[in-house]
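quick one, 607 residues, struct below
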Amino acid sequence: MTITVRPLVQRIPETWTRAIRFGAIGALGLVFICLSGMPVRLDMREVVVPVLSLGYLVVLVAPLVVGVLLVRRPEHEAFLDDPSSDGELLLGATAGGLVAGGGLSLLAVLVTNFDLRDPLINWSPQLLEMLSFGRGALFAFVLWLFIGAGLGCLGGVLRFAPVRTRRVIVTMALTIVAAAILESLVLDLVEGVGLDEYIDWIYAPRGGLTMTGTGVLAVVSGILSAVGQGRIRTLKVRIEGLEGPKRTRVNASLIAGVGAVLILLPLLVGKLTNELLANIGLFVLLALGLNVVVGLAGILDLGYVAFFAVGSYSTAVLTAATSPRFAPELPWFVALIVVVFIAVMVGLFIGAPVIRMRGDYLAIVTLGFGEIIRLLFLSDWLSGWFGGSQGITAIDGVEVFGILTVDGTNPRRVFYLVLFFCALAIYISWRLERSRLGRAWMAVREDEPVAEAMGINTVNVKLMAFVVGAVLGSFGGAIFVAKVGSVFPTSFLILVSIIILVVVIFGGMGNIFGVIAGAVVLIGVLGGPKQPGLLLELGEFKLLIYGALLVWMMLARPEGLIPSVRRSRELHQEEFLQDVWLKGQSDTGESDQTDSIGIPANGRSSR
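---
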């Protein structure tokens, strides 16, 4: 077999083409981020004092990512005629980072010489000041070229590092960033346990990590990552290998531990953190309901906010003395029974007309139903029942056994109420997923015609998904009304449905723990449509980040943050079949080579 080696100079144009393409995408992304105003706005949030702010971190990540992507080898590079060497890939990573950094260099020059603040309001001296560190456009032009090239090269080197080393470095970096983002939560928790005097050497007085705190966190997280990598994987394999009573005991212990943490945590933190926890729990409850519809049954429902609105308004009418026409003033738990029945009826009402539709048609029709429900509550026609644009106010909280009242003035009690219903929703989802109905949902999601041919009544199955999702959504609406004390049509915009859908997709469709993780990460850090998160500075960029995350998840990791095993197999079935085919081709190639020397694949001598 003849091996042809092409000279390096003949392969460099391919490397440069790829580097320029990736670098140009990075440069455009950086310019877009800067002109959105995000770096200037986030520059007020320190990560490491006085070295790094969140604004600079957002800018510095792009060239680093470009470098990492440019040294990624094709999965089946062994089948290529002329694979690139490590030196070529590292050269391409450096060049890509240089091009990406050049976008900021060019932007600094343009901001200096042109005034485009009329169409671009963030085309400002503050942006130039940030890019140039107060030293002028020429300095910024040269600086960002060097920074881009250096970060691109660093990304390439990081990609070439051994897997264990790379994981340790990434863990250290993520720990430092997470500690800076979660500063308010950590400070609140430390003050709750009476250890606030020990936190001064970790966090600076005006926010951000100190150099000492950064070093300690990096060392501790690096050691834990290096020591625990193999052990955590081994422990996970051991737990997954358990069966019968042993697996049940382990699961019960894990659930009990998580439950104990969730019960004790609100007692150790303050009012603002409890408010954040209550908001996260509310979105977890809503996301669990949508996960049944989208994640298990595969029905793309863009009007899920309708069930949330029905639960809220039904509870308000049944419990509030200020309800315009009908005010029975029922206790909250009694009203909840009626609300569940109403939610079932609405789920059947919305699901029946659209149940035979599929794909985009189903999504658009459910989107229309969501808007119809909101406009009905807003209309003058039903204002005598629901208050129109004035809504319903002065809604009482939840009376628990006549001992205490759960309302918005006590976020801790609200969190415990939300926690109870989240536990109920998790149990319902878990039981349904493993039931005959759950298996029917997943069969419909995978291939509806085949499921129907196998005898599954797809109409009834999909209606049941709508009903279960409506009931869980009504739980969230009932708690929301008791927490806020009022209800208005503006609380149920279509944006709520979109954000809940992003939470489900980001966390992992069809996986209960993935949905919970998605709500904790997104709602906890960014916040909901009108609810603040830990990073208040990201409030005006919330929708931009949600959209970018949704696009990235669809392209890079469609199975989600914590994917369901079955869902992952569905999404990557074509890749699995391709791997099998390539393996077969490889085996065939080896057989051909053995044939050429007279020994066929079956091991018999050739004549």
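Residues 275 and 411 are 5 Å apart (CA to CA).
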